[in-house]
């Protein structure tokens, strides 16, 4: 039976079935929320595909606080299949948290992710794993053609191009959950907010080799979509977070310091000009709006520079206290004798 235990980063809400201890070759992580009509068919299709691959595997089903009977069906599936590991979150934490829970408990050399709504075709999994075996660190699915309504396609089209431009990681489909990654890449991921869609951009900090593969996409037949336009604002805010973490996460002074120098420099030039005309042209400057602008810009520059210095102190403290590396090795060099 499933037993509550504490391990990894999310230490207070995971359940694990202690029954399939052999290290698998593939770990399949699937977050599920209120998919009572899909989980049986999902399990049937997944096992049919994975069994034909000829490699050991585990299926990690993460129930994200379902309240429609999904948990009971997942428990029955886990009891009947020793390759299924069930994680039950205490409430609906969101898809990012569900992926993170699954990543914390994945043990396979290759970690594959997908959705629980059966729109991603499980038969595409061998193609993604084959690409990993060619030497790639991450393989992302590209739903082509995508079987969704225009209300999803249009925002997604703009969002994919905005994310690609902002992060520098060019992908056609950031929202596709069908991905394959090496375990060491997964271990280096830290996800929160709505950042599961930014996994390729977050992993780019590690210098991963990445490719994109067109995959079949199917229309939703049962259940209802959990996505809506209300997520757009949160995604944009998370995009700003990802951009900052990737570009300036270890050197915040380079961002705030440059902004501070720019504002402070312009303010100082304005104040210098006003000082010149006051001292040498005998012109009154006390009532000029330009004086207020110069003082405001100079003080803003000082504040930004201080923000940068405080950010550097926080980053230094974080890296030293958490033993977080500032680099990632692709492989460990042989020891010299």
Distance separating the two termini? 49 Å
What is the fold named in CATH at topology level of the largest domain?
Answer: Spore Coat Polysaccharide Biosynthesis Protein SpsA, Chain A
Number of separate domains: 2
Beta percentage is 5-15%
What is the helix content? 40-55%
Q: What is the string of SSEs from the N terminus onward?
A: EEEHEHEHEHEHEHHEHHH
Q: What ranges have pLDDT less than 50 throughout 5 or more consecutive residues?
A: 1-20
| Largest pleated sheet | 7 strands, mixed
Widest sheet: strand ordering? 5-4-3-6-8-7-9
What is the global morphology?
elongated
Mind telling me the CATH superfamily name of the largest domain?
Answer: Spore Coat Polysaccharide Biosynthesis Protein SpsA, Chain A
Q: How does CATH name the architecture of the largest domain? A: Alpha-Beta Complex
Mean pLDDT: 83
Number of helices: 10
What gyration radius follows from the Cα positions, in whole Å? 25 Å
The tally of strands reads 9
Structural class estimated from helices and strands:
alpha/beta
Task: Please write the CATH class name of the largest domain.
Answer: Alpha Beta
Oligomeric grouping of the chains: single chain
């Amino acid at each position: 039976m499933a037993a509550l235990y504490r391990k990894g980063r999310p230490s207070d809400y995971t359940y694990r079935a202690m029954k399939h201890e052999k290290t698998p070759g593939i770990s399949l992580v699937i977050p599920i929320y209120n998919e009572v009509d899909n989980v049986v068919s999902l399990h049937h299709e997944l096992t049919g595909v994975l069994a034909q691959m000829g490699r050991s595997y585990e299926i990690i089903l993460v129930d994200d606080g379902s309240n429609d009977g999904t948990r009971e069906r997942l428990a029955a599936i886990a009891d009947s299949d020793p390759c299924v590991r069930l994680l039950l979150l205490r409430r609906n934490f969101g898809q990012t948290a569900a992926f993170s829970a699954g990543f914390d408990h994945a043990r396979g050399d290759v970690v594959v992710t997908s959705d629980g709504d059966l729109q991603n075709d499980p038969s595409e999994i061998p193609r993604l794993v084959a690409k990993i075996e060619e030497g790639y660190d991450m393989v992302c699915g590209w739903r082509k053609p995508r079987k969704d309504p225009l209300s999803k396609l249009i925002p997604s089209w703009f969002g994919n191009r905005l994310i690609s431009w902002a992060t520098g990681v060019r992908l056609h489909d950031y929202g596709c959950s069908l991905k394959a990654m090496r375990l060491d890449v997964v271990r280096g991921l830290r996800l929160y907010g709505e950042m599961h869609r930014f996994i390729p951009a977050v992993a780019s900090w590690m210098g991963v080799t990445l490719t994109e593969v067109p995959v079949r996409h199917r229309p939703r037949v049962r259940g209802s979509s959990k996505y809506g336009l209300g997520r757009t604002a949160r995604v944009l805010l998370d995009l700003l977070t990802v951009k900052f973490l990737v570009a300036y996460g270890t050197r915040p002074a380079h961002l705030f310091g440059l902004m501070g120098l720019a504002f402070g420099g312009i303010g100082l030039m304005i104040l210098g000009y006003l000082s010149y005309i006051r001292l040498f042209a005998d012109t009154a400057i006390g009532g000029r709006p330009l004086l207020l602008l110069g003082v405001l810009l100079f003080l803003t520059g000082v504040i930004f520079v201080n923000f940068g210095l405080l950010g550097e102190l926080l980053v230094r403290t974080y890296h030293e206290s958490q033993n977080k590396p500032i680099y990632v090795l692709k492989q460990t060099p042989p020891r010299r004798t």
